[in-house]
Design a protein that fits this description.
mainly alpha
Length: 897
C-alpha cells in the first residue's frame, strides 16, 4: 500500500496528497491495514515524522463525520498544523459542518478538539456549537490563549483573559449561554477557577448582568449541588452583598434543606465534610437557621463531626435569642450523655454562658446540666457538679428536689459533695452508719455447669447433618467430635450408604485456612467416599508423625494434633477395624469422664481391637482424674496395653500441673511494682512415660515455639487439654502472630475449662483488658473466673501494671474494659485488680490515662466500701496542682479513709 510506504518515509505532505487522490470508499478500505501497521510502529522506535504521517493517514481514512469526531476525541493530544487544514479541506463543506456539530456536542478542553472545531466554524461559516462542554472549552482556550499554527484559524486578540473575551466575536453568542447555566461551567468536574474569574470580571464591568448570574448560579446549585470546596471558592469570588444574599434566600433555603438531609444520613468524616463546608459557605442568617432548628436537634444524635456542627448552629441561635427553652433542654438531653468528652464539655460551657447572660434561666439550666450526673465519665460528672454549685444561688429553691434526684446517679466519690450542696441527707454510695451498713457483695454470673455431650449419633442422616454443620461453622467442639465419631461409627456399619448420603455435603468446600481447623473434617468425608483428596490431605497425613523440633509459621500445636486425629480417622475408616473413637468428650469443655473411658476401652478389648494411638492419646489427655475406687478398680482390671496405660494414668492423676510463672516474678507484701520489663510466661514441659505419639506429646512436652501463626486460636485448642489450660495458654498464645484479632474471643472457653488458672491464663486476660479486642469476651472470662473463685485479682492487677509500664497500651483502654466489668456488679472484684495495679502506675512518670483508672477506682472503692490507705495514691493526692489525675487521687484518698 502506497500510504504505508509514505508513512514509513515520514512524508506527511505525501500522505495528504495520496489521500486526496482516493475516493472516500477507497480511504475507508485502507483503515484496517493502517491500524495493523500502527500496532507494528507502536512496538518499535520511530521518528516524529513517521508518527505524524501515521496519524494523518489514519485520520484521513475515517469516512463519516461521526467516526472522525470520535477518532479526534480519542487521539486529541496533537498540534493542529497546516497538514490538518489540508486534510480537512479534502471534505465538502456539509461534511465539515456535520463534523463541527459532532465535535461541539461533546467538546473537551483537551488537545486539538477545540482548535479543530473553531477552525472549521471560521472556515465554513457553519453554526457555532452551544453545548455546555463547548462553552467551557471556549473559556479555557481564551484563558490559555494557545498559539495557532500558520493557516489555522482561531484565537482572539488581547493580552489577558478579559481583554480576549471582549475582543472575541464568539463572546456575544457564547457568553449569554455561560450566564444562563453558569453552574455547568463553574462546577464542572476538574474545572479551574478560570470560568468563574471570567464571569465575575465581566459582571463587574457590566458586560453581563450580575444579578442574573447570581440567580442562575444558585438555581444550578439547587438542581445539582456541587462539592463544598467549589462552593467556597465561588461564593468568596462573588462576595455577595446583603441585598444579593437576600435575593437568593429561597434557593439557599432549598440547598440547606438538601444538605441537612444528607447530614442526617451521616457517614464517614470524609464523606460528610463537603456538606458541612457547603452549609457554612451559604452563611445562613439566624432567622433562616431558626426555620430548620428541628433538623439541627436531630443532628445531635449523629456522628461526632455532625453533632459538633449542629451544636455550633444551636449555640448561635441561642445567642441570637431564637432558641426556645424547651428546645434548649432537648439539646442538653441529646448531648450531655454522649460519650465524646469534648462535645459534653462544650455543652456545659454553653450552659454556663446561658446562666451568666440571663440569671433568670438559672433554674432550668442547672436542672439541664444535672443530666450529666448520669454520665459514665466521673470527670464530666464533676464538671457538671461544679457548674451547678457555681450558679446554685441564682436558682430558685424549687429546683433542689430535681437536683437531688439527679444526684442519685453521681459516682459515689462525688456523693458527699452533692449531699452537702443540695442538703440531701444521704445519697447512694455515701458512707452509712456502722450499725445499718449492709455488707457489699459482687453480683457475679452463675457458675456455668459443664454441658454434657449427647450420646453417639444414631443414623447416617444425622451424621451428614452434623458434618455439614461443622463445615459451615468450625467453632463448635461438640458438633465436631460427634461428627468425627459418627463418620467412623457409620462407615464401620455401612460405608456405602453413608458415602451416598454425604454426596450433597461435598459440593461446597470449607473456607481456606493456613492452620488446621475443625472444618477440615470435610477431608475425612471425602476420603470415606473415595473422592480425590484436596492438596492439604498429604500434609495432614504427615502430621501424625510430626516431631516439632523447630518453630512453625503455619501450624499451631493444637492444629497439628487435630490434623493427626483427622488423618488417623481416615486410616481407621479405611481399615474398618475400630468401630468408634475413644476421645469423644463427655462434656463440652473437652473433659472425658473416667468411667466412660474405662467402658470404651473395655468394649474394644472384648472385640480384640487395639485403639488407634493418637485417638488413645487424646482420650488420655482429656480424661478427668478421679478418686472413685470403683472406677479405679475397673481400670486396673483391664488387660490390654491401652487398659493398663489408662489405669496407670488414673492412678498417677495424669500429668502434674506445670507452673507458667516466669522466674523472678516479684512476690512481696505489699507488692513491689512489676514494671522491670515484659514478663514472658515460662514454657512448662514434661516428658511422659511411656511416651505419647509425638504430635500429642508436643501439647504438654518441651516447647520449641512458633514463628508467627496466621490463624487465631480456636475453641478446640482448649478442648484438647481440658485439665491443663494454663500450660496451653503459656505456649502458642503468647508467641508471634500475624494479628491479635480473634484470639481473646476464646478466653471464655479457657475460663470454663479445668486445671489451675495460673500466670499464663491471667496474663491473657491482662492482654485482653488492655488491647480492647473482643472486649466482651475478655470481660466474660474474667467474671466467670471470679464466680468460680479462680481469679487472682492481685496477679491480674500487677500483670496489667507491668504491661502498661512496658508501653503495651494506655490506661484509658484498660479503664474502659474494667469499667465494663464493674458495671455488671463486680465493683469489689475490679477494685481488687486496681488496688494491685495502682501503686506501680503512680510513680514520678505516670502512665498515660492513669486519671481514668483513678476515676474508676473511686467509683469501685466507694460502692464496695473499700478502706485502707494506698501510699502512692496519698502521695499523688498531696501534690500541688489541678491535673485530673491529682483531683481523682484526692477523691480516692478520701474514699479510702
Amino acid at each position: 500500500m502506497k500510504l504505508i510506504e509514505l508513512v514509513e518515509a515520514g512524508d506527511v505532505a505525501g500522505v495528504v496528497r495520496e489521500l486526496g487522490a482516493l475516493t472516500p470508499d477507497q480511504r475507508g478500505a485502507c483503515a484496517t491495514e493502517l491500524t495493523a501497521h500502527f500496532e507494528v510502529i507502536a512496538r518499535r522506535e520511530s521518528t516524529e515524522a513517521q508518527r505524524i504521517a501515521m496519524f494523518a493517514a489514519r485520520l484521513g481514512c475515517q469516512v463519516t463525520p461521526e467516526a472522525t469526531a470520535a477518532w479526534i476525541r480519542s487521539y486529541a493530544y496533537f498540534t493542529m498544523d497546516a497538514w490538518t487544514v489540508d486534510l480537512l479541506d479534502l471534505y465538502p463543506v456539509a461534511w465539515r459542518t456535520e463534523l463541527v456539530a459532532q465535535l461541539g456536542e461533546r467538546a473537551t478542553t483537551a488537545g486539538a478538539v477545540f482548535a479543530v472545531t473553531e477552525h472549521l466554524v471560521r472556515d465554513t461559516g457553519c453554526p457555532l456549537p452551544t453545548s455546555h462542554e463547548f462553552v467551557l472549552a471556549w473559556l479555557y482556550d481564551r484563558a490559555d490563549s494557545p498559539e495557532r499554527q500558520p493557516r489555522v484559524l482561531g484565537g482572539a486578540p488581547g493580552t489577558d483573559f478579559l481583554e480576549r473575551l471582549r475582543g472575541d466575536d464568539f463572546t456575544p453568542r457564547l457568553l449569554p449561554l455561560a450566564v444562563a447555566r453558569p453552574g455547568g461551567l463553574v462546577f464542572a468536574p476538574h474545572t479551574s477557577e478560570r470560568p468563574l474569574e471570567a464571569l465575575v470580571g465581566l459582571a463587574a464591568e457590566g458586560v453581563v448582568d450580575r444579578a442574573e448570574l447570581i440567580h442562575n448560579l444558585f438555581a444550578d446549585m439547587v438542581g445539582d449541588p456541587p462539592h463544598g470546596a467549589q462552593v467556597v471558592v465561588t461564593l468568596e469570588a462573588l462576595a455577595l452583598t446583603p441585598a444579593e444574599h437576600a435575593a437568593v434566600a429561597r434557593e439557599r433555603a432549598a440547598l440547606v434543606e438538601h444538605l441537612l438531609g444528607r447530614l442526617l444520613e451521616d457517614g464517614t468524616r470524609m464523606e460528610i465534610a463537603p456538606f458541612m463546608v457547603f452549609l457554612r459557605a451559604l452563611t445562613s442568617t439566624p432567622a433562616e437557621k431558626a426555620l430548620v432548628v428541628r433538623d439541627y436537634l436531630a443532628l445531635l444524635d449523629r456522628s461526632l463531626p455532625v453533632a459538633t456542627y449542629a451544636q455550633e448552629m444551636l449555640i448561635g441561635l441561642d445567642e441570637a435569642g431564637l432558641l426556645e427553652p424547651e428546645l434548649f433542654t432537648e439539646a442538653c438531653e441529646r448531648v450531655l450523655l454522649r460519650p465524646e468528652k469534648k462535645l459534653v464539655r462544650t455543652q456545659l460551657g454553653w450552659l454556663d454562658r446561658v446562666v451568666r447572660r440571663d440569671p433568670a434561666r438559672a433554674g432550668r439550666a442547672l436542672v439541664d446540666a444535672a443530666t450529666t450526673f448520669g454520665h459514665r465519665e466521673m470527670t464530666l460528672q464533676e464538671q457538671a457538679l461544679k457548674l451547678v454549685a457555681k450558679h446554685l444561688k441564682a436558682a430558685d429553691a424549687s429546683v433542689l428536689e430535681e437536683l437531688r434526684t439527679a444526684a442519685e446517679q453521681l459516682s459515689p466519690g462525688l456523693s458527699a459533695r452533692a449531699a452537702e450542696l443540695f442538703g440531701t441527707p444521704r445519697l447512694p454510695g455515701a458512707p452509712q452508719d456502722a450499725g445499718t451498713e449492709q455488707p457489699y457483695a459482687d453480683v457475679l454470673p452463675a457458675v456455668p455447669e459443664p454441658r454434657p455431650v449427647p450420646g453417639p449419633i444414631a443414623t447416617a442422616v444425622e451424621v451428614v447433618q452434623e458434618v455439614a454443620a461443622v463445615v459451615a461453622n468450625d467453632q463448635d467442639v461438640v458438633a465436631f467430635e460427634r461428627a468425627l465419631d459418627g463418620l467412623v461409627r457409620h462407615a464401620h456399619l455401612d460405608r456405602t450408604a453413608l458415602a451416598e448420603a454425604l454426596k450433597p455435603v461435598m459440593r461446597r468446600e470449607p473456607k481456606s485456612n493456613v492452620d488446621w481447623v475443625q472444618s477440615d473434617l470435610y477431608d475425612v468425608a471425602r476420603a470415606l467416599r473415595g473422592d480425590e483428596p484436596r492438596s492439604r490431605v498429604a500434609i495432614m497425613h504427615r502430621a501424625v508423625h510430626i516431631n516439632r523440633t523447630a518453630p512453625s509459621r503455619s501450624y499451631s500445636l493444637a492444629g497439628s494434633m487435630l490434623a493427626a486425629r483427622l488423618a488417623e480417622a481416615m486410616e481407621v475408616i479405611e481399615s474398618g477395624t475400630q468401630p468408634f473413637l475413644l476421645a469423644v468428650p463427655t462434656f463440652a469443655t473437652g473433659a472425658l469422664d473416667a468411667a466412660v473411658l474405662v467402658e470404651r476401652i473395655s468394649a474394644l478389648d472384648e472385640l480384640g481391637v487395639t485403639p488407634a494411638p493418637v485417638d488413645l492419646a487424646q482420650a488420655l489427655l482429656r480424661v478427668t482424674p478421679t478418686a472413685d475406687q470403683q472406677v479405679l478398680r475397673a481400670a486396673e482390671s483391664l488387660a490390654s496395653d491401652a487398659g493398663r496405660r489408662l489405669a496407670r494414668w488414673l492412678r498417677e492423676g495424669g500429668p502434674a500441673h506445670q507452673d507458667s510463672e516466669p522466674k523472678g516474678w516479684p512476690h512481696c507484701k505489699p507488692p513491689k511494682p512489676a514494671s522491670q520489663g515484659w514478663w514472658t510466661p515460662a514454657y512448662p514441659g514434661v516428658d511422659i512415660d511411656p511416651p505419647l505419639p509425638r504430635v500429642a506429646a508436643a501439647l504438654i512436652g518441651p516447647y520449641v515455639g512458633n514463628s508467627g501463626l496466621s490463624d487465631p486460636m480456636a475453641p478446640f485448642w482448649v478442648a484438647q487439654l481440658p485439665h491443663h489450660r494454663d500450660e496451653l495458654m503459656a505456649r502458642d498464645y503468647f508467641e508471634p502472630r500475624m494479628s491479635h484479632r480473634g484470639w481473646p474471643r476464646n478466653l471464655p472457653y479457657v475460663a470454663e475449662s479445668g486445671g489451675p488458672a495460673g500466670y499464663a491464663v491471667h496474663l491473657a486476660l491482662a492482654f485482653g483488658l488492655l488491647q480492647q479486642i473482643d472486649g466482651d469476651a475478655v470481660v466474660d472470662a474474667m467474671l466467670v473466673l471470679a464466680a468460680r473463685k479462680q481469679l487472682d485479682t492481685d496477679l491480674l492487677g500487677r500483670q496489667s501494671e507491668a504491661l502498661l509500664n512496658h508501653g503495651l497500651s494506655n490506661a484509658d483502654k484498660a479503664s474502659g474494659s474494667l469499667r465494663a466489668a464493674a458495671e455488671t456488679g463486680a465493683y469489689a472484684t475490679v477494685w481488687s485488680v486496681l488496688r494491685a495495679a495502682l501503686p506501680g502506675l503512680l510513680g514520678d512518670t505516670q502512665v498515660r490515662g492513669t486519671a481514668a483508672l483513678l476515676a474508676l477506682a473511686v467509683e469501685c472503692a466507694s460502692r464496695c466500701g473499700a478502706k485502707g490507705e494506698i501510699a502512692e495514691v496519698t502521695a499523688l493526692a498531696d501534690r500541688k496542682g489541678s491535673s485530673q489525675a491529682v483531683k481523682n487521687a484526692r477523691l480516692l484518698r478520701d474514699a479510702l479513709r
